[in-house]
Amino acid sequence: MLFELEDLTYSRGGKVVLSDVRARLPVGAGSLLGPSGSGKSTLLRLLNRLADPDKGRVLYQGRDVREHDPLTLRREISLVPQLPALVDGTVHDNVAYGPRLAGRSFDARSCLELAGLDPGFEDRDASKLSVGEQQRVMLARALALEPRVLLLDEPTSALDQAAREAVEGTLRRLRARTAISLVVVTHDIAQAKRLAEYVVRIESGRVLAQGPAAELLAEPDEEPAIGASRDAS
């Protein structure tokens, strides 16, 4: 199991954001699905210790994430934020940002290609790219650290349909070509169907249900057979 969430509670500013969350995410492509304000982005941040719960545990491959060095953990479990946050300079400068801080070698052109961008983008001014292109540069920057897991927070929410389809296609190809696991936060049921194999549904800081996407998100006329598993938490 990639992640196991045990009785997580998290508060911010005196308000409970997550309450007694119990869930799991297997290796592969997972999704945290729910409406805005449901706590799914906060939960994503708990997976690589950008925040710690008030109560409960996050297990990564069977080990409490608090037993890991935070920086090492965040390089292995890399988060791509909802909106691009690029450094000044070229696309190459952005892809190089993480590896240089970590003292690692990297292949910028390979990372760009995996992220769905032509290697010719390497010398372009990052600030002059479209939002969709910038989002893929963010993905390439994360890939430069050779992570085992990518956490993607609403990766297409700021994009038009064409750019959204391009980014989703990139993520599907990435899964097909690498062993990297994905955890995608989304409010879009259709997107969760397209990208995820396993889904955790969240609302008002609680897990409503979890299970294989094909079963949990089946249309009324595609209901799974009686007895199919839908784990509620």
List keywords for this structure.
single chain, alpha/beta, six-stranded mixed beta sheet, four-stranded antiparallel beta sheet, 8 helices, 10 strands
Q: Count of DSSP E strands?
A: 10
Q: What overall form do the CA principal axes indicate?
A: globular
Helix and strand run = EEEHEEHEHHHEHEHEEH
Largest beta sheet: strand ordering: 6-7-8-3-9-10
Distance between the termini: 17 Å
- Radius of gyration from the CA trace? 18 Å
Average pLDDT, rounded to a whole number, is 92
Q: Structural class from helices and strands?
A: alpha/beta
Specify the number of helices. Answer: 8
Report the sheet with the most strands, covering strand number, pairing sense and barrel closure.
6 strands, mixed
Q: Beta-sheet strand percentage?
A: 25-35%
Low-pLDDT residue intervals, each spanning 5 or more residues = 222-233
- The amount of helix comes to 25-40%
Description:
The chain is an alpha/beta fold and 233 residues long. Helix content is 32%, strand content 27%. The protein contains 8 helices and 10 strands. The strands form 2 sheets. A 6-stranded mixed β-sheet has the order 6-7-8-3-9-10, with helices on both faces. It starts with a strand and ends in a 17-residue tail after the last helix.
